[in-house]
Amino acid sequence: MFAYIPARGGSKRIPRKNVKKLGDKPLISHVIGNLLKASAINKIAVSSDDDEVLQIASSFESRVATLKPRASDLCDDHSTFLDLVKLDLPRYVEHFGDNDVILVLPTAALISSTIFNKAIELFQRDTNGLVCSVTSLGRDPMLAMVGDPASSLTPLFTEMYVKPTKDLPVTYIDAGCFYCFDFNKMKSLNRFMDLAPIRGFLLDPDVGIDVDTPEDWSRLEQSFTSRKQ
User: 20: domain range?
Assistant: First the structure.
């Protein structure tokens, strides 16, 4: 299995997010360093349109490949994971000669090599589906309502309102840290989450932080600092 890190240069809500310093080094350096320590990962691909990202990746050992810069039309706000799988990932699959991939977000700085190894072990028990990082939302989403609070709200799951709270199912959400899959099975799909079965690797909420906003970044910094101490 190889790791694929899609790390474009642009980021509107957190400028230069992927190379922003976390502690004493760029964010993506933490991710690459942890992946290099994971015994279940043979090689690492860093895909980017950004010279600084590519230079950082190239400073690591030979297990990290960047190839040519990613096409600019795959680096905008509209490009999805599935776009990358179909139009960018194939060159790395061919380069490494491997179809098993763990797509890792360049913001997943708190994911340790141990977590990567355990997630890959879970995937390898059944390589037909998807293994993704998740965090727990608890039972509250089962009682969610939509609409305008001032005029009319509608329960999303009306049948859940007749059950005792303790009997409501626990819910989970994509943590936005990593995804394990077989490229050959994923490339023909129309939606990323159509690959079944979906199995979740449960992360502590202080580890599984999807960094999209300045508030997310603050959480990441706080968790990073507390773990170092």
Answer: 2-133+176-205
